[in-house]
Amino acid sequence: MISTSFLFFLVTPLINIYIYIYIYIYIYTVKLLSVLCFCLQTEFNDKPDSLFFNDGVRRIDFILAYEDEDKKDFEKRHTFQRQYFEASLMKMGMELEAIQSVIDEKLLFVKVHMPWDVLCTYAEVLHIKLPIQPNDLSSRPSRWRFLSCITKHFYPNEELITKETEFFTAPFEKDRLEYFYVRDKDVFFTASMRSRMAYYILSRAPYEIRGNIKKFGITKLLDRGVYKAAYPLHDSRFNVESKEEGCPNERFLLYKEWAHPKSFYKMQPLNLIRKYYGEKIGIYFAWLGFYTIMLALAAVVGLGCFIYGYRTQDTSTWSKEVCDPEIGGKIVMCPQCDKECKYWRLNSTCEASKKLCIFDNFGTLVFAVFMSIWVTLFLEFWKRYQAELEYTWDTVEFLEQEQSPRPEYEAKCIYERKNPITGVKETVPYTACGRCLRLSIGIGTVLFWILLILASIVAIIVYRLAAFFAFSAKLRAQDMKELEPLKEYVTPQMATSVTASLISFVVIMILNTLYERVAIWITDFELPRTRTDYENSLTLKMFLFQFVNYYSSCFYIAFAKGKAVGYPGDPVYLLGKYRNEECDPGGCLIELTTQLSIIMGGKAIWNNIQEVLLPWVKNLILRHCTRGPSEKVIPRWEQDYRLQSLSKLGLFYEYLEMVIQFGFVTLFVASFPLAPVLALVNNLFEIRVDAWKITTQFRRIVPEKAQDIGAWQPILQGIAILAVATNAMIIAFTSDMIPRLVYYWSFSVYPYGDHLNHTMQGYTNSSLSIFNINDFSNNSRPMKTPYNITTCRYRDFRYAPGHPKEYEYTIYYWHVIAAKMAFIIVLEHIVYFTKFILSYVIPDVPYAVKEQIKREKYLTQVVLHETNLKLVTKHGTGFLKEKCMEEDVRP
């Protein structure tokens, strides 16, 4: 018998010869197709604003740009891949035209056009909704129509941006074209639809085949440098109106009525934004505009609360007692660190106590409750507004119909499984165990980075303790007057707080940059099926990290700092070395306000530098380095090539920036009523800056569908629920409001005529405990003690020396603790109950929108399905009659 190895020896050369012949035929087929492709290269026709091929008929739907490379080995492979890719595009029905740059001889552009038949095919594949008949439902008049003479000035110019006719729409079907409202084939598919379909094909066209492995997608070619850029065209220059026939000048109109600084007070032309950039960009600007409008109400109330606190800071009984030389001036406070710190007088914190009264007053309590209700109204009204946009922009059933797998997902599909819904076998990129492994690695990596943030927070806390001791020691070495507290106490405390906040901000920015790449890598490794799944997964990872990164230092100051410090005779130490940090003499609320101001302000400045200054500088340098003819003779595609490309996650960072801001506005608003005011001012600039950026500095974005704001919606709802608890706890544990209320109603009752009078007089003295300086331990005793004092005071509610329970908590302390817990429970239940009632009363979808959705579904059923059913019935009846006549039988 012939051995298996001998058979293998004979068959192997035959297999190799077959493979070589296949590769030979394959290469020459590709070369032939590439020759046909490059025969289309033409010269520039001196029409810089043209949006068409040189024949002036075929519209440009996409542009591919590449450089003519030297004939090196890897560059030959790039050329081969590019030629095969372009041949694949032509095989899929697309038409190409190559043209050389007017500036750089090595730079070439490939124009891509989709013929009518290809457009119809992929419109059906992507379930794009198109008009079937004009909307015949009468629209309800606006409630504010009597103010139209005033409000019209705050809307874009209707003569420039005209209101478009509303249509009922249905998913496109190529075989039923006659039932759709086609007036002109050239404008039936909008430019954004054409670009979206073109990108869909580009993402799935193969560029190389190796055995059973097919490599495809323009994304991979861009990453490998085979192509330098791929983008749809802007329809005109942003600052000059195009005179070319068939140019809608939508970019020019958007710049003039939306992105230009002089239009900052106008409402956004959302329908035109959606038409030009797609639903995903449109829904972002709709959400940002709605959030900004709602912030205006919160800003007015917050500003009123701030003005109330500012006006009453000098009349507050508590601040007056602190500043009084006969009260605060005679109270000697204990040192707040070991050995190096000195005694200080309470009236040294006069200015700090006045500033505290601006933020820590009864108006703050009212504002915190108001913001808890405000955030509920914001989310509920946004759901209604979003439902209107979903219907108007034809995205009601987007998630169910139009979500196609990502090219990266399809490329890794090698395992077969039975679909539990359809029962049909399909390919997936991983098994159940593989998916669990990928998710486990992702979760573990995210947890590791979150622990890394917590470690950095602990390091900053240690820095605060060491820095405060060092600043105090430095001032101790200086020759200062005894008990001059303003210079020798407040300076180290403020220096420590400010420098720690700045260091915290720098650490936050560094960790953000590092984690961003890690989060993208993890999400790519998990291989989500659709684009929405990918973005939701990345959103959750990034927000969990950013939440801990941005808010952890604020949570530390609000709920941990100064809460476990012991008392001067028995202080608490961190790591057995550093004495635990106490609050500023004015209270931890002032430090929390400082931290919020630095992080919010620094974040806004940094984001503006990244979003505006960097793209502008890059474009300026690029224009300077590639000097050539003026824009009047540079073609449209080359003008766009010189702009910056928006990253795949560009919109993701915009959402993340606003959601983090939303957290600052809601989670810690009880400590900083001006947060909504700062957010409002920032957002007014943010809208116009983002509009200016994407209109003038970036290439046109590939339009994408989006039904809503995605995973950000549940994140906002989670922040809203958490905000109630955090604000209640800030008022209870960080501010002095509850101790003051307990003192006012329980411990400050004096007879006044026939009734009892409540007063805040004496609160300062009652809130400070007494300590005998002889009870200091050797490790904590100050180096220098004034000869004329025997006791000092500290912030706590403990029995005085000599009492049977000396240095133990007083009954007042337990009253205050009980009041704090009761306040949190009552406030949370009241607010949560109110939120539940509001959520139930306010429907998510307006009644008028429900009517229109039902009407559209009815028309779709009548026009498309029932008409087809009648045809089937008619043909079926005719067939039955013919059979009966053949058999001579009555039907």
TrEMBL record:
Superkingdom in the source lineage: Eukaryota
Residues of the Anoctamin dimerisation domain: 52-270
Keyword vocabulary terms for this entry: Cell membrane, Glycoprotein, Membrane, Transmembrane, Transmembrane helix
Record GO biological process: calcium activated phosphatidylcholine scrambling; calcium activated phosphatidylserine scrambling
Membrane topology note: Multi-pass membrane protein
Transmembrane segments: 6-27, 284-310, 362-382, 446-473, 493-515, 538-559, 658-681, 715-735, 811-833
Keyword Transmembrane tagged: yes
Family of the protein in this entry: Belongs to the anoctamin family.
Full protein name: Anoctamin
GO molecular function: chloride channel activity; protein dimerization activity
GO cellular component: plasma membrane
Domain annotation Anoctamin transmembrane: ranges: 273-856
Compartments, as annotated in UniProt: Cell membrane; Membrane
Species of the source: Cyclopterus lumpus
Classification of source organism: Eukaryota, Metazoa, Chordata, Craniata, Vertebrata
Pfam family, one: Anoctamin
